[in-house]
Structures are given as structure tokens and as C-alpha cells.
Amino acid sequence: MSHISAGPVPAPTPDRSPSAPTNPPGTATRKGWFTALLRRLHFFAGLFVGPFILVAAVSGALYAISPSLEKVLYPHELTATSTLASLPLAPQIAAAEAYVRDGATPVAVRPAPEAGATTRVMFADPSLPQSTTRAVFVDPATAAIRGDLPAYGTSGALPLRHWISDLHRSLHLGDVGRWYSELAASWLGIVALAGLGLWIGRFVASRRGRRDLLRPNRSHRGYRRLSSWHSAVGIWVVVGAVFLSATGITWSTFAGAHVADLRSAIGEGTPSLTTSLDGAPAAAGGHAGHGGAASGESAADADPATFDAVLAVARGVNADSGAVEIRPPAAAGKAWVVQEIHRSFPTQVDAVAIDGSTMQVTDRVDFADYPVLAKLSRWGIDLHSGTLFGLANQLVLLALALGIAALVVLGYAMWWTRRPTRGLAAAPARGALRGAPWWGVAAVLAVAVGIGLFLPLVGYTLAAFVVVDVLVGWRARRARLRQSEN
């Protein structure tokens, strides 16, 4: 039978399935060569890559609900004691600096996005991992310190979410571990599309059992029951699986670089904000008595009051979202940056660069001006992360991830059920391309090479599959020849 799966699907056998192929092993009719090829690809990809997809799906299910888990686990840090009007940022930053001590100055500040939320004042800390800051949570109404936690990256993920994210992305193994997630993301879409092709072929050929392809038939037992669940669950998650595969690839090490290069080549890259102040006049003091960081000074010299002044300027330009991040210049000759970080729909990620000595806007980037692919990339990433539509987004992702994990388990259960008394279940017969027309062979080779170049880990593993398959076939033929000679 044909199925949609992230797990292995055993080939039908004549004694157990009415839809089993009648061709001798190693052959395929010209009419059915493509289905035979999809079946073999689906089987081997699911068999060998299934464990990677299963780990990615389970960790992804946890990651999908991690934004909500953060609110449950860190209510004291994330919640203010009152909903009174907020103080200016200056006294809040001063309170955080006094709490941290040692003359530390913030590398970023995230004002309370709404009443009842806390302000985050973030400091560099060499004891923390790369891209991680020390976030001090301040009650905006009283400047009281509410907590002190590591926060990761532009998402501002707190320890629980960061731990789950790192598990999902790299199994806590660093750059090498990211190969696992890229392998899973790259093959997930291929396995799902191959399964979809098999499902469509079976749906077209079947007249009586089409309903069983859309919902599980509980009257079946054994292999047929597993197959029914596999087919029905697969067709409902296939679109989501392809989406997760495509968006996951954009974050990957090798294929992700190819995606970025392609977008840049066609002028669809994400616009970047220019923060250089080259040619801007240096000033001895701050603007309007605010004591801001002049173009010749570093972020360590920034007065806390400058955060208020810079934010006021940004509010009048394009940073009108409640959720923003203010970053002082990282070095002399750089501008202050105010970046919207509102990732829920409608997306607000506008950014503005401001000269701290003159309070003049030196550059701005608006989401409305993003190229189409850049907008789709932003929405895709946020949808994949569960932030675009809030809790509803997270629950859909949770169901989708669990569905993919179930397909892997069902696939292996089907493979195990089909095993003979000794050994393991046989793979679908090889030799599909021998029954294909020349143009079919050429198309398959062209697609395989193209995918292998764009998705390197798919190319390497596919080449390994082919080499192993050829060696196994060669060994089997030699064994048959020896038997015939004897």
C-alpha cells in the first residue's frame, strides 16, 4: 500500500495485500515505474532518516508550546506588581545597573510592552554562551528588580525555551548537532511529498476504500489497521510537514546559506539597517542636555537618559509598536538602533538608526518595504516558531509535530509487522528506472542532482543510499549466480 509518512513503509507482498504488485522482483512496468520509484524512495528514506525526524518532531512539539511554558514558569520575572504608569527608562536602567554593579552598562533595553509587564535591561556577560545576555527584569512603575535570567538571541528566549530550542536545533551538540536538524528538515519534505504521490495514486485507483484514506478504519486489524492510520494521518499533516521542512531549511547551516544566496541574487534578501556614522559630525555633549553617546564615544559612555531620548525619536519615525528593543552603539562611530520585535500578526519589525549626538535619523527599514520573499520568510519563521498567531499557532504546531512523530512510529510498526519469521521486512523491489522511458530517467537524474546541490545533506545521504543499494544488489546477483552454477 502507499502512504504518507516520515517513517518507513514496507513494500506490499502478494500473500498479504490485495494491492500488491504482480511484477517479478527487480522489474517494473513502464506505466508504473514512477510509483515504484516513489515507493522505494519513501521506504528507504523513512527507514534511515526516520529517527532524525522523530527526534525533531518530539523536540519540536515541546518548542511549539515553549512560549506559553515561559509564562507559566517565570511569572515573577515577567509580571509587574501593578499596572500604574511607567517611569522613564532612565531610573529603571539605573536600578538595573545598581543591581548588577561593577560599572556594567546595558547592551539593550526592552521597555515593558504593555501594562503589567516588566522591562528587560540586558547586559553582556562573558560567563554566558554566545548570543546570550543577562536580562534584569524591572517593574516599570516602581523600578523594583523582579528577577535576573539569561536571555537568548533576538527572540529573548529565557532558559527553558532556550534549552528546548537548542535541543530541537542541535541536540545540545553545537554546530555538529545542527547537521541532525538539517538532515531531518531536508528529508522530511521529500518523504512527505513521496508519500503524497503514493497516496494520490492509491486514491485514484481505489473506488471502495477512499474514505479509509481520509480517516482511519477501526475495523481493520494488524497491518491493515496500522496502514489505515498511517494513510489517514499522513494526508492531514502533509502540507504542514512540507511547510516545516521548507522553513526549517532556511535556518540550516548548508542549505540555509544557499537559500540566502538565492534570495540575494534575485534581490529578495531581508533589508539591513546601516548603523555606520562615517562622515557624521562628532559632538562634545548630548542633545538637549540628555548626555547621549556622541559619535566618537562608545556604548559604555551612554547616559541612561539617552534611551528615553532615542526612543522618543524612534516613536515619531516608525517604531510605534509596544514591543521594541533599544541598542546603544556597539562601538565608536555607530548609531543607536531601535528595533520593533513584535512578531505576532500583524508583523511589526521596523527599525531605525539614530545618531546619539544629534538625535538625527541616519537610516530606517520598514517591514512594509520588504521584498515579497523577505516578508514570506519572516512570516514563515514566526509561524514555525509559534509566535505569529499566539496560542492558536502553538496548539496547531503541537498537533502537527505529534502527528509527524506518530507517522514515524506507525511506519516502523508496519515495517516490523511485515517481517517474515526470520529477518526483516523486504524493501520494495529495485529496478524501477529500468522500466522508465529515457526522458523519465533523465528527469529523475536532473532532479536528484539539483536537490543534492541545493540540499547538500540530502545529496550526501542519497548518494550513500545508492551506493549501498548497488552493492547489495551486486552481492545478491553473485549469490544467485553461485547457486545456479551449483
What is the overall shape?
elongated
Content of β-strand: 5-15%
Determine the number of helices (DSSP H or I, runs of at least 4 residues): 13
Number of beta strands:
8
Helix coverage percent of residues?
A: 40-55%
Q: Can you tell me the number of structural domains?
A: 3
Largest pleated sheet: 4 strands, antiparallel
As residue ranges, the low-confidence spans are 1-7, 9-29, 280-296
Briefly note the structural class of the backbone.
alpha+beta
Terminal CA distance reads 37 Å
User: Can you give the mean pLDDT?
Assistant: 86
Order of helices and strands: HHHHEEEEHHHHHEEEEHHHH
Radius of gyration: 28 Å
Strand order of the largest sheet: 1-2-3-4
Give an overview in words.
This is Iron-regulated membrane protein. Pfam families: PepSY_TM. This protein has 486 residues and is of the alpha+beta class. The chain folds into three domains: 33-63 and 171-264 and 394-485, no CATH class; 75-157, no CATH class; 271-369, no CATH class. It is 50% helix and 8% strand. It has 13 helices and eight strands. The strands form two sheets. The chain has a four-stranded antiparallel sheet. A hairpin with an 8-residue loop joins β2 and β3. Residues 1-7, 9-29 and 280-296 have low confidence and may be disordered.
Question: What is the compact description of this entry?
Answer:
With 486 residues, this protein is an alpha+beta fold. 50% of the residues lie in helices and 8% in strands. Residues 1-28, 276-300 are annotated as: Disordered.
